Here is the input.
Amino acid sequence: MHYLLAATSTSSKGNPYLFPIIILALFGLLYFVMIRPQRNRQRQAAQTQNEVMPGSRVRTTAGMYATVVSVEGDDVVLKIAPGVNVRYMRRSIMNVVPDAPGDTGFIDEDESMDGSGPAKGTKGGTPADASEDGPATT
Here is the structure.
């Protein structure tokens, strides 16, 4: 019985500062792996959004490519197709994309996405009102 009491009364004598040091090291690792890079990305996005000028080609956070027509305070007017302008918040601009030489960014009505001819469902660049077999019945 005497041995049982001796075994329970002894405690492990480890470094009492080891646990707080490990916790601080994990928070430091978390900061350098996740928080700091995210802040850098946010800072870069804010800088890009503030430097947007009319005429630049941009990609929105929704993935839409457009050309900036004008900048009005916190809003930008984007041209998404010939004659189609939309107003977006400036912070919805993800990045500025480089223009390819001669690229207007719009698909010509006589071209498909791959440039091989009229787009599917069109006849000579106009929407197909009827199927290939004849007029549609409604």
In short: The mean pLDDT is 76. Residues 23 and 55 are 51 Å apart (CA to CA). Residues 18-50 form the longest helix (33 residues).
